[in-house]
Amino acid sequence: MVTLPNLADQWQATLGWQPTVAHQEQWQSLYDMLLDANQHLNLTRITTPEDFWEKHLWDSLRGVKDDLTRPAGLRLLDVGSGAGFPGLPLAIARPDWAVTLLEARRKKTVFLESVIQQLALPNAQPVTARAEALAQQPRQRGAYDRVLVRAVGSAVDCARYAWPFVKPGGEVVLYRGQWTETEADQLAAVIQTWGQAVLKVEAFETPLTAGRRHRVVVQRLLPGNQPGAFPAKSR
């Protein structure tokens, strides 16, 4: 078995939070299952223990850093979850959070279902659907405190897919690598047309490789109008 690094000091120094032994054991099991399934499902290219720790575990939790130590439970939606990141590490870290893992490809939600069953994560639920289809369900619109998107794509498209699901006072969180002034201007222009939204961007470095990352947050400020099926596409 390939063992994940512990790095307790890094968790505390960078997030002000530390995992328990139970968290570490479940993350190790998740890593083992991912390596096994990756042989035939091609779930991820991030497979070394250090890379997995930094780019899957730490990065997943860094996106909701401010929420980790808050006592209140949250309802989260992971859009385009893929192999389960950031949703699965968050469901393990905070069992009081309800985490929905939205993934369009059935073969990947089968993997997610297996992991959730084997790790006994009653707070995690995989859903096989596209964001556009799920947004047509009235009970899904405006239903989540945090909507997380780590998928590849333009920031405008990622935010547009996520926006219908976030409740008033909630946040869309985009996990981004590089972030340019052009991207910021394009996203700011689009969300201005939605109303009741504010854009915040936070730059940071990863703890092991000093990679440059950005946390891009679109917050729904006031109740205003109920979220519709989708904001209009930018041209």
Description:
There is one protein chain. This protein is α/β, with parallel strands linked by helices and 235 residues long. It has a single domain, classed as Rossmann fold (3-Layer(aba) Sandwich). Helices cover 38% and strands 22% of the residues. The chain has 8 helices and 7 strands. The chain has helices at residues 8-15, 21-41, 49-62, 87-93, 106-119, 131-134, 155-162, 181-194; strands spanning 75-79, 98-103, 124-128, 144-149, 166-176, 197-205, 212-220. It has a 7-stranded mixed β-sheet with strand order 3-2-1-4-5-7-6, with helices on both faces. A hairpin with a 6-residue loop joins strand 6 and strand 7 (212-220). The protein is globular.
Short description:
The protein is an alpha/beta fold and 235 residues long. The chain contains eight helices and seven strands; from the N terminus they run αααβαβαβαβαβαββ.
